[in-house]
Task: structure prediction
Amino acid sequence: MVDRNGWGADRPIPAGTSRDPPARFVEQANVFDPAIYDEFEERWPECWERAAALLSWNEEYDTVLEDEDAPFYRWFTGGTLNAAENCIDRHLEAGRKTHTAIRWEGKHGDRRTYTYRDLYVAVNEFAAALRDLGVEADDVVTIYLPMIPELPIAMLACARIGAPHSVVFAGLSADALATRMDAAGSEYLVTCDGYYRRGDAFNQKSKADNAKLALEADVRTVVVDRLGEELPHVLGEDEWDYHDRREEFSGETVDPVARDAEDMLFLMYTSGTTGDPKGVVHSTGGYLAHVAWTTRTVLDVEPADTYWCAADIGWITGHSYIVYGPLALGTTTVMYEGTPDYPDRDRLWEIVDRNAVDVFYTAPTAIRAFMKWGEEYPERHDLSSLRLLGTVGEPISPRPWDWYYTHIGGEECPIVDTWWQTETGAVTISTLPGIGEMKPGAAGPALPGIDVSVVDESGAPVDPGETGYLTLTRPWPGMLRTLYDSDGRFLEEYWMQFSDPGTGEWRYASGDTATVDEDGYVTVLGRVDDVINAAGRRLSTMEIESAITDVDGVAESAVVGRANDRGDTEIYAYVSTEGWSEAGADVREAIGANVESAIGPIAKPHEIVFTPELPKTRSGKIMRRLLEDIANDEELGDTSALRNPEIVGEIRSERSNR
Ligand code: WT7
Result:
């Protein structure tokens, strides 16, 4: 069993003190009756109608789940709906025009508020503008924007006209953008002139321009002017200004296009085992039902709430829990452009205080940073508006869990530790906050209607406490439908390992290892595939390695995760060069620059260790596990299987010289 997260099977998270949900919370919880687990079990898959009932359908669906063509499952078939209409129009009709939809907190203290009516106007105008550019239903529109309101506006405008969006995280490089646009055959791009990063104006358009140079297709582009005078830009051929376009279509409305429940709502690229990013396809009906349902049941959100998920919309967390989930429920969603420590380390708590945020959702890496900074920062503010806290993205160990519970939640807020993935679309493992006991370190049991099994290599369930592969044994509405243009890879990556197509028994392989306890609580240990989860970002070791080996003079490389003192995973690269003795500062620099240009700054190695050779098995396979143990100062296991065992000592002395 291989694991690359620093939370290996050899280093399990020590158990924390379990807690029951605080009584004050339970009294008002959206879900408080434990019978929900049995009800879902008895009426599966019809139980999922409760999720579908949170949406407005143009055409009622005929069938909850069609599994004839498993694992190409189809949910709510025959139904039609529009996601933008569900996230906006129906709330206007419900008399909530002046309710705040998006509360935007800008980097330099600037703020914007969009009521549902404002959002309606903006989305309609931009939908009209996109149509005018030629965008039709099923055309993939790529969106390459930072955390500004135009990002959700563009997503919803696409949804309104039935054009799937593919949002590319703004921090990714020109190459990464080009690869994704090319893979999706996308001929439309929405981007901006630039944005602020750590106080500096950062040029986004030049990255977009470079990406377009690498593409064969003509790309029609809309540019949002974020920085004005601070970063003047010129529009080229086939480029339009966002604000001009809005003005041109001022007051215009566009009828929402009724989409089949199974039509693609969006595409999101994520890292997999090989270098090519995977285009995860999400549906309209099942996805929206699942995110709305979990926003309500797991995050306990209600329309009157001010809810804040402090993630970036450029990843799945933001899609599901900044945009689609909260807006489908008609709540107020907070969107934050900046970083947690600017202008000071109390920035997030100042925003919670001023907006009276009810529900707050963030990642363990952020919580570990807050803990390190100290409780004086949250103590400066009144956080008593908070009712529930959430975490997502990686395991949270008991110490940061307790800190979050005590210093942010004031011991009055339950914490939901939500396990899910880009592929699952929405939360699949978590306690229900008004029901389940919280066990710090363990995410919780499978949600009602979800079935989890931790299995060995042969697919047999392991005993409680034993490490195994985390699988899902039944389909769920928010699940990915396929990989874009690659049904074969979809089957290969997620289904073939543990399924038995002969008997029709399909099991989804999550790529994580885990243990499960007697109560069904799952503790996630880490990834089995060549994926590093660094500060909640999913990166492919192969993608990074191929950027490293592209550098002149580099022979081979192996990338592993290393847990730093704080518990964050850092990227650690071992590199062998041609003409080993010459490896110097210039190669080191070139490696950093190449990774940044191939993927983005988030993938740059924290450390590079040069070595004459990489340790290999007799069959020539790089021993990554060993390299990972070296990086993490772990005791090394048996190295006798190595073809070149002497290299281990050399790597170690090279490391200690650094
Ligand atoms: C991987 C998915 C969808 C959330 C953002 C990341 C890890 C996610 C937890 C959790 C332990 C977690 C897993 C998973 N992960 N949530 N609560 N506890 N690990 O989405 O980029 O697709 O990454 O994040 O390893 O497979 P993603």
